[in-house]
Specification:
Helix 9 crosses helix 12 and helix 10 runs antiparallel to helix 11. Strand 15 and strand 16 form a beta hairpin. By secondary structure, this protein is of the alpha/beta class. It is 40% helix and 21% strand. It is built from 12 helices and 16 strands. Strands 4, 5, 6, 7, 8, 9, 10, 13, 14, 15 and 16 form an 11-stranded mixed beta sheet that branches. It has a 3-stranded antiparallel beta sheet with strand order 1-2-3. It has a two-stranded antiparallel ribbon with strand order 11-12.
């Protein structure tokens, strides 16, 4: 640790009691630890590039602050980050290898958000979910299952429940009434750790509401058609929340009898689509294989894209804070984008996202694109919402696929 090197962690500004701090967290969720550092401490941490010695860090701080930072204070900061597994080195590698080994050896993908983003107690969690449907902004009642026109699938948000309450409730109410299937293909957004466009897993998933079984026969049929390439990024499932959040609604509304086909697809892929369709052979072959398997058992499959839309603001790499004017313009662009799916026109949807290099950071681009290609259906907008924050605004929608 004489030459400390910060891992590729996420750093973003927050305010507490009128003071600004830097929040550090691991986007891959290898470590659940979150560090909140004063601005001067964060300035020191930014010199942790693996090339600077303690003495060189002191010299850099002298140039920046005009005062000497004691070596013991720097070492204490190094220890704080190392204990939180935010520095590269032997301790982190040993920790990482143990986490990865445990995941690969397990038949079950365990919940990562229970007790953090939602209650870890089953009764409390069911009460929390029912509250989303019963709230004034929601449908007003817990939806009945399969009582409306049959749907092929849905687009549903994966933002936290607090900000996405209405969109979740309205979307899942519509999905429940139109889902007559026994199998749900859940295409999550893989925010980190994916090198290929998508990754499958045959693991079952556990939440506080019980075990969700994976349709292993369907998944193995995909393996036969796609090869092991489709499973190379399986480890990315461990820390990805976008499937987990949908499973809570599946269990609450349908019980634990439904089987899933869990897929994660890379976020903000660009470009993904060309004149001939998907630019990735893996994505193209996945769609063809999935459609073939669905046709072998018609009416038994419902496709879910767990997808948010725009991510704008300094926390997502933009220079300027988000204004109300920008939010209004974003709404216009989002609605125009979703209208391409209502036609439906997959090429127009892809072109609308890719034409500006996905400047609005639409993370659900690939999951929506895959769902559209698999179902070949027409999308119907149920709800569009925005979570406004000058530092980090997120937009999202619920849509049915008919």
């Amino acid at each position: 640790m004489d030459y400390p090197k910060l891992r590729n962690v996420e750093a973003f500004p927050i305010e507490q009691d009128g003071q600004r701090f830097a929040c550090l967290r691991d986007p891959t969720n290898l470590t659940p630890n979150v560090l909140i550092l004063p601005q001067d401490a964060f300035a020191i941490v930014q010199t942790f590039d693996g090339k600077n010695s303690i003495a060189e860090i002191q010299a850099a701080c002298m140039r920046q602050f005009g005062e000497l930072i004691y070596g013991d204070d720097i070492r204490a900061l190094i220890k704080q980050l190392d204990d939180a597994h935010m520095l590269e080195g032997a301790a982190f590698e040993e920790y990482r290898m143990a986490i990865e080994r445990d995941f690969r050896q397990s038949d079950v993908r365990e919940s990562i958000l229970a007790g953090k983003s939602y209650s870890a107690e089953p009764e409390e969690l069911e009460f929390e979910l029912s509250g989303l449907f019963l709230s004034e902004d929601g449908p007003g009642e817990v939806p009945k299952i399969a009582v409306g026109d049959r749907k092929k699938g849905a687009v549903l948000p994966h933002i936290d429940f607090d900000r996405g309450a209405k969109c979740y409730a309205m979307g899942w109410a519509a999905a429940a009434m139109g889902c007559y299937a026994r199998r749900l293909i859940v295409i999550g957004t893989g925010h980190f750790g994916l090198e290929k466009p998508l990754a499958l897993t045959s693991k079952d998933f556990r939440t506080p509401l019980g075990l969700v079984k994976t349709d292993k026969k369907f998944v193995e049929s995909l393996r036969e058609r796609l090869g092991d390439e489709a499973f190379e990024g399986e480890y990315a499932h461990r820390a990805e929340h976008s499937i987990e959040l949908q499973l809570l609604f599946i269990q609450y509304l349908f019980g634990n009898d439904m089987e899933i086909v869990p897929v994660i697809s890379v976020a903000r892929e660009k470009p993904a689509w060309g004149e001939g369709g998907f630019l990735s052979p893996l994505a193209s072959n996945f769609v063809a294989a999935t459609r073939e398997l669905i046709e072998d058992s018609p009416g038994e499959t419902f496709v879910i894209a767990s997808a948010d839309l725009a991510h704008v603001g300094p926390r997502f790499g933009d220079q300027l804070e988000v204004s109300q004017t920008a939010v209004d313009a974003m709404r216009e662009k989002d609605i125009e984008l979703l209208e391409t799916l209502e036609k439906p026109d997959i090429a127009a949807f892809a072109d609308a996202v890719q034409s500006d290099g996905n400047a609005r950071n639409i993370c659900g681009f690939m999951p929506i694109l895959l769902a559209a290609a698999i179902t070949g259906g027409r999308f119907e907008l149920v709800d569009y919402s925005q979570a406004f924050d000058p530092m980090a605004t997120v937009t999202f929608a619920s849509m049915m696929i008919a």
